[in-house]
Amino acid sequence: MKSQACIALLCLIVLQGCSAFSWKPCTDVESKSSIKDVGLTPDPPFPGSTAQFTIDATADVEIAAGTLDISVAYHGFPIYSESKDLCDKTECPVKKGPVKVALEEPFPIITPPGPYTVRITAKGKGNDAPQLFCLDVDFNVVPQGSATQQNIRPESS
């Protein structure tokens, strides 16, 4: 009986390490766009890599300028946050219709493997400015050199 429990636990750990990222719109925030797709490269990220997030959305409002707020949680605990200029990550002014946001985040070589959640929020400037979108991206960082990381093929230039 103990061996079956150990095998089941080992399978869960292996599956968790191999699982692809997932994303969902924030449920606690009203947004003025619909998110169509989110990409993460490499998937999964590993220490020393640079994660590239791409967000395809459709804006319901126009925003002249704004911020992109990023907050990172590890095992559910907040560990890092920063704000970036939205216009450095997409074309401004943001007009109604299709919007693509590209974001790169380096993972230091000392990044511990495990589950992470990144909240990405795009909003206009000012207190009354509309929020373009908010989403949560869940993924696992795998150890550098792991079998999962070795299956990643670098993009050709």
TrEMBL record:
Pfam families: E1_DerP2_DerF2
Alphabetical UniProt keywords: Lipid transport, Signal, Transport
Known function: Catalyzes the intermembrane transfer of phosphatidylglycerol and phosphatidylinositol.
Subunit structure: Monomer.
Start and end residues of each MD-2-related lipid-recognition domain: 23-139
GO BP annotations listed: sterol transport
Taxonomic lineage from the root: Eukaryota, Viridiplantae, Chlorophyta, core chlorophytes, Trebouxiophyceae
Molecular function GO labels: sterol binding
Name the UniProt record assigns to this protein: Putative extracellular protein CSOL_057
Family under the similarity heading: Belongs to the NPC2 family.
Organism: Pseudococcomyxa simplex
Signal peptide span: 1-20
SUPFAM superfamilies linked to this entry: E set domains
